[in-house]
């Protein structure tokens, strides 16, 4: 019962982050901020949703369910490693291509290429 | 325009949900697919005949092994065709899109570390998918694609030439040929031992165990052959397409 509540809460929070990521991709002004929303939002929401699904498996604590929980956690670790890396690689590629960063009034700040 | 799109999506979704009610239930015994006589045979007899729990693999690699062999040949042919169309040799290298051909990248620390961490795991998982194909979903095609993808990841993270240290062009073609050779070899071996082409039952003469085990082990062998071909052709297609056929440097 408690574990179900926790998993429902985690999945709901994850969905909120997911919506945040989706809105960010659509609404943010340039490539970098959009990638930021996509990378951060997806990683965090995926972590929360998978954790919730894994905990939901545990409400009958048998060995098979623990194994499923372990597999889901393995997927989580995989996503936690790969998703930020792909975001980093994309942003680095964009930076080397010379995509301009967005500033509030179009003024130049810092070492913008 | 947006409203029109929304309307289309809503109507299509409504129709799909309506049509979904006509589907047979999950695992329904009386659905056409399950009540057909041949399906009955597969469902009841697969494990007794081949000792393979995964019916899909049994049908794919044993009952319809001839079909699957030529699917593998189709993949091989596709790879050869792409090489034949795109490959350019030696002096007539003319990159059509010079802006696409990037200069040699210096390796990025984060990407490289992640790749070093992940590629062994991906390759191990690919081998697992191949070897476990007759107990769980998986098999030669899926495992081969995962294995090929690990080399593609290497080529993306560093560059094409770095990945080609492990899978150079001639080795790719050899591997693709070896895969089909393994598959057809099982067929020819059963012909030589007096059975039909790809009739694994007669292979008990050279594979230890009874007829069931011969079926099961031959399926594993055939899946390994498929995995060889698919791995090689996956990477070959990527390297041909990404480098405009000159295999020097790619995206």
Distance linking N and C termini of chain B:
37 Å
Percentage of residues in DSSP E strands of chain A: under 5%
Please compute the radius of gyration of chain B using only Cα atoms.
23 Å
What order do the helices and strands of chain B follow?
HHHHHHHHHH
Q: In percent terms, what proportion of residues of chain B is strand?
A: under 5%
How would you characterize the largest beta sheet of chain A? none
Helix content of chain A: over 70%
Calculate Rg of chain A over CA atoms.
18 Å
Low-pLDDT segments, ≥5 res of chain B: none
DSSP E strands of chain A, number: 0
The multimeric state of the shown protein is: heterodimer
Query: How many separate domains of chain B?
Result: 1
Estimated helix fraction of chain B: 55-70%
Summarize the model shown.
Chain A is mainly alpha-helical. Chain A has three helices and no strands.
How would you sum up this structure, described in words?
- The complex is a heterodimer of chains A (113) and B (251).
- Chain A has 113 residues and is an all-alpha fold.
- Helices cover 78% and strands 0% of the residues of chain A.
- Chain A has helices spanning 2-27, 31-57, 63-97.
- Chain A has one domain.
- The longest helix of chain A has 35 residues, at 63-97.
- Helix content of chain B is 68%, strand content 0%.
- Chain B contains ten helices and no strands.
- In chain B, helix 4 (55-63) packs across helix 10 (211-242).
- The radius of gyration of chain B is 23 Å and the shape is globular.
- The model of chain B has no long low-confidence stretch (mean pLDDT 86).
- Chain A binds chain B through residues 78, 81-82, 85, 88-89, 92, and chain B through 108, 110-111, 114, 117-118, 157.
């Amino acid at each position: 019962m408690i574990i179900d509540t926790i998993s429902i809460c985690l999945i709901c929070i994850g969905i909120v982050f997911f919506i945040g990521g989706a809105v960010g991709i659509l609404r943010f002004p340039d490539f970098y901020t959009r990638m930021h929303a996509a990378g951060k939002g997806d990683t965090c929401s995926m972590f929360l949703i998978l954790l919730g699904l894994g905990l939901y498996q545990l409400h009958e604590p048998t060995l098979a369910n623990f194994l499923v929980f372990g597999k889901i956690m393995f997927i989580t670790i995989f996503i936690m490693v790969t998703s930020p890396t792909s975001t980093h690689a994309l942003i680095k590629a964009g930076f080397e291509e010379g995509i301009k960063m967005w500033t509030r009034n179009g003024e130049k700040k810092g070492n913008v290429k | 325009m947006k409203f029109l799109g929304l309307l289309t999506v809503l109507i299509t979704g409504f129709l799909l949900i309506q049509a979904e009610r006509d589907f047979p239930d999950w695992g329904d015994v009386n659905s056409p697919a399950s009540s057909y006589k041949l399906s009955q045979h597969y469902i009841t007899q697969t494990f007794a005949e081949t000792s393979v729990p995964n019916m899909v693999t049994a049908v794919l690699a044993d009952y319809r092994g001839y079909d699957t062999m030529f699917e593998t040949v189709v993949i091989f042919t596709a790879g050869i065709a792409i090489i034949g169309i795109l490959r350019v040799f030696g002096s007539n290298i003319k990159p059509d899109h010079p802006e696409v051909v990037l200069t040699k990248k210096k390796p990025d620390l984060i990407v490289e570390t992640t790749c070093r961490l992940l590629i062994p795991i991906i390759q191990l998982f690919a081998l697992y998918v191949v070897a476990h194909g007759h107990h769980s979903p998986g098999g030669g095609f899926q495992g081969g694609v995962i294995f090929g993808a690990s080399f593609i990841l290497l080529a993306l993270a560093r560059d094409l030439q770095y990945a080609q240290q492990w899978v150079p062009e001639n080795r790719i073609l050899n591997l693709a040929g070896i895969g089909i050779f393994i598959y057809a070899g099982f067929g020819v071996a059963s012909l030589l031992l007096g059975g039909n082409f790809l009739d694994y039952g007669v292979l008990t003469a050279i594979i230890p165990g009874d007829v069931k085990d011969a079926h099961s082990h031959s399926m594993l062998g055939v899946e390994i052959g498929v995995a060889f071909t698919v791995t090689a052709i996956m990477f070959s297609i990527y390297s041909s397409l990404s480098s405009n056929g000159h295999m020097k440097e790619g995206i």
